[in-house]
User: Which sequence fits this backbone?
């Protein structure tokens, strides 16, 4: 509990006196922003991107939150977005999944020249046809349903309900933690188990791209490591492409191949996860160092 309190006060993992206000982080983050070239982003994505956002302007209603955003990530790569509160990190995931309004620019997915613009697809088509899954930031399991029923819900878009059950069994084969609790109501699971259920419910549709919003939020430290281990396995052993938002910038950047710092709807810094971990400005503002 004490740990949670500390974390929710700012970006630093440290004590309250090391925390600076969101406004101050914003101003300082803007000051360290440098021009990020599209060619740099392509190089980070091994010049073979699978998901590309080009000059994307998007937001909610008529309010523009993302002002000409570029993003590129290769197949089986992971990208972590960090930045101050309200910078638009979740909005990027929302735009990719189709939860908000796209004013201009494009979102393309596919290998090489076979890319398709998916900007106009609905979220259910994204999940079913484009292979993109969104793992919710907030608690999204159905507490009154069993673990098994929650997994079946993850397959509600499948043409045949039997397919959802078969896919759920695959998840149980992989995660015995969940299999042992398949008949338990989701509300009795621990925080870590619930997060595992949220992630595995997305796996029922066998997506290629996982959009993950703050996987560590609200979890005890030992579960945070578990969740990152699960995501590591999904990337490296199952070949998933991961775009993640993470408030715990250190964990997120240690995990991810690529890191972007987003400030006020624009890309301020981009580099490999390791480069950002060693960047003194990033350290000062987001790593508590
Ligand atoms: N559903 C929404 N409707 C209107 N504005 C929103 C909505 N969600 C987020 N915003 C606004 O968009 C901006 C970026 O928010 P968000 O992407 O959630 O930031 P982050 O994830 O970086 O903390 C904020 O100013 C926020 O108030
Ligand atoms: Mg967010």
Assistant:
């Amino acid at each position: 509990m004490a740990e949670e309190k500390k974390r929710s006060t700012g970006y630093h993992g440290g004590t309250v006196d090391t925390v600076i206000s969101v406004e101050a982080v914003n101003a300082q983050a803007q000051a360290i922003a440098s021009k990020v070239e599209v060619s740099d982003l392509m190089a980070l994505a091994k010049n073979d991107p699978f998901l590309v956002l080009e000059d994307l302007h998007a937001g909610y209603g008529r309010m523009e939150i993302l002002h000409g955003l570029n993003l590129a990530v290769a197949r089986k790569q992971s990208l972590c977005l960090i930045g101050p509160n309200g910078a638009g990190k979740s909005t990027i995931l929302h735009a990719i999944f189709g939860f908000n309004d796209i004013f201009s620019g494009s979102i393309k997915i596919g290998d090489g020249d076979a890319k398709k613009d998916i900007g106009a697809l609905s979220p259910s088509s994204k999940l079913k046809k484009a292979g993109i899954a969104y793992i919710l930031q907030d608690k999204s399991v159905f507490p009154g349903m069993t673990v098994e029923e929650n997994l079946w819900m993850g397959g509600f878009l499948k043409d045949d309900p039997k397919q959802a059950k078969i896919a759920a069994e695959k998840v149980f084969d992989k995660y015995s933690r969940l299999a042992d609790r398949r008949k338990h109501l989701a509300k009795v699971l621990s925080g870590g188990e619930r997060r595992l259920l949220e992630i595995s419910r997305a796996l029922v549709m066998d997506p290629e791209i996982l959009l993950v919003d703050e996987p560590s939020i609200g979890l005890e430290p030992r579960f945070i490591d578990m969740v990152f281990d699960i995501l590591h396995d999904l990337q490296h052993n199952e070949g998933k492409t991961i775009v993640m938002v993470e408030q715990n910038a250190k964990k997120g950047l240690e995990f991810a191949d690529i890191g972007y710092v987003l400030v006020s709807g624009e890309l301020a810094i981009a580099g490999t996860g390791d480069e950002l971990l060693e960047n003194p400005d990033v350290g000062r503002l987001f790593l508590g160092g």
About this structure: The radius of gyration is 19 Å. The first helix runs from residue 2 to 8. Residues 1-17 have pLDDT under 50 and may be disordered.
